[in-house]
Write a structure and sequence with these properties.
Elements lengths: L16 H19 L6 H8 L3 H7 L3 H25 L4 H18 L1 H8 L1 H5 L1 H20 L7 H27 L16 H18 L4
Helix pairs in contact: 1-2, 1-6, 4-5, 4-6, 4-8, 5-6, 5-10, 8-9
Length: 217
C-alpha cells in the first residue's frame, strides 16, 4: 500500500502518492493552459493544488520535468482512447472511423490537453518536441498495424503518419476556430459546434477512400 504524502495539514488533505501525483498533473495542466509554461511557476502550481512546494518537488524535480511528464501523460491517455475504440470495431472501415472518433472526442473533452501536446511551445522546444514525436510515433505505429494494403512496411508507415496528420490537422483547425469564437459546421453554417462523431465520419470517408486506392493501380 502506498504511503500518503507529507502535505501540510493546513494546505490540503493527505493523499496516497499516486493520487497526489495525478492531482498535481491535472492542476499543472490547467495552470500551463491558462498562463503558459514560462509564466507559470512551481509556486503557482503548488498553491493551486493546495500543497506546499516541497510536496510538489517530491513528485517532480523541476518545472520542465513536470511539463515533460504532462506531455507523456496526455499522449498516453489519447493513445488509450484510440486503442479502446478501435479494439471493438467490427472491420477495417469501422476501425478507421472509430479511431478518428476517439481522437476527436478526446480533443472535445480535453481541449487544454490537446493544446499542451500540439501547441507552439511543444514544437519550438527540442526536448518537448521529442516527447510529442514519441506520441505521434506510437499512434502511427498502431494505425500502420491496421492498414490493410498490399504495400511494404515503409509505405505502410508513411500512410499511417498521413492518417495521424489528418486527425491532428482537423483538430487543430477546430480548436483554433473555437478559440477565435468562429465555429461552423464545415459547410458554411456559422455558430454551429462540430460534433466529434460527425467530424470523424467526414474525415474517415476521405481517409478510407485513399487507403482503399493504395496498391490498386
Amino acid at each position: 500500500m502506498t504511503a500518503p504524502d507529507r502535505a501540510d495539514p493546513g494546505r490540503g488533505p493527505r493523499l496516497p502518492a499516486a493520487e497526489r501525483r495525478r492531482q498535481l498533473l491535472d492542476v499543472a495542466l490547467e495552470a500551463f493552459a491558462a498562463n503558459g509554461f514560462h509564466v507559470t511557476s512551481m509556486d503557482d502550481i503548488a498553491e493551486a493544488a493546495g500543497v506546499t512546494k516541497p510536496v510538489l518537488y517530491q513528485h517532480f524535480r523541476s518545472k520542465r520535468a513536470l511539463y515533460l511528464e504532462l506531455l507523456d501523460d496526455v499522449g498516453a491517455r489519447l493513445m488509450e482512447a484510440i486503442t479502446k475504440a478501435t479494439a471493438t470495431a467490427t472491420g477495417p472501415r469501422q476501425q478507421v472511423e472509430a479511431g478518428f472518433a476517439a481522437y476527436f472526442r478526446f480533443v472535445a473533452v480535453h481541449e487544454n490537453a490537446f493544446r499542451l501536446l500540439f501547441g507552439s511551445l511543444a514544437r519550438r522546444d527540442e526536448e518537448f518536441s521529442a516527447a510529442v514525436r514519441r506520441v505521434e510515433d506510437s499512434i502511427a505505429e498502431a494505425v500502420a498495424d491496421r492498414i490493410d494494403a498490399d504495400v511494404d512496411t515503409s509505405h505502410r508507415r508513411l500512410l499511417a503518419y498521413a492518417v495521424v496528420g489528418m486527425a491532428e490537422g482537423a483538430s487543430s483547425h477546430v480548436v483554433a476556430r473555437r478559440s477565435l469564437g468562429v465555429l461552423d459546421d464545415g459547410a458554411g453554417g456559422r455558430g454551429i459546434e462540430i460534433d466529434p462523431d460527425e467530424l470523424a465520419r467526414r474525415i474517415a470517408e476521405l481517409a478510407w477512400a485513399g487507403l482503399r486506392g493504395v496498391g490498386s493501380s
